[in-house]
Write a structure and sequence with these properties.
The longest helix has 17 residues. Helices cover about 40% and strands about 15% of the residues. The protein has 3 helices and 2 strands, in the order ααβαβ. This is Zinc-binding dehydrogenase. It holds the Pfam family ADH_zinc_N_2.
Length: about 80
């Protein structure tokens, strides 16, 4: 890093969310990235709702690379 003169810069959530201009720019960046496919969620594993305990154990194990998704099938409306 030193020879390439690289810089590591951390950001805090509140640096962006408390500033209306910066928050709007961040939202636009994410929306554009999702719309163009430049930004996409990496899904590690998908569990049905019935296996929620397995999903939680998998999460607690900490070995995932990406998101853990729990799917909910369509439910009949009783109302």
């Amino acid at each position: 890093m030193l020879f390439k003169h690289l810089t590591i810069r951390g950001f805090e959530l509140f640096e962006i969310t408390t500033d209306d201009r910066r928050r709007a720019a961040a939202v636009e960046f994410v929306r554009d990235g999702l719309a163009t496919g430049e930004l996409a969620a990496v899904i590690d594993k998908v569990f049905p709702l019935e296996a929620i305990a397995d999903a939680h154990r998998y999460l607690e194990a900490g070995g995932q690379v990406g998101k853990i998704v729990v799917t909910v099938t369509g439910q009949e409306s009783g109302a």
